[in-house]
Structure prediction request, 58 residues.
Amino acid sequence: MAQWAHLGAHGFILRYMDEIQTFGYHESPLEKMAYALDANFSEGGAKNDIPSYVARNI
Prediction:
């Protein structure tokens, strides 16, 4: 959701489709970012300001 909000609907869809075609699903930078944040949360890692994290790392 934060990636979508940061890039906007059109920008997110264009980037997401390009990354999937270029890198494949599991190596897509947007997916890797989302899975890393999910793993951090699931493992009880440090709390992140997700919108700020996405803005810095997108």
Remarks:
- The chain has a mean pLDDT of 94.
- The radius of gyration is 12 Å.
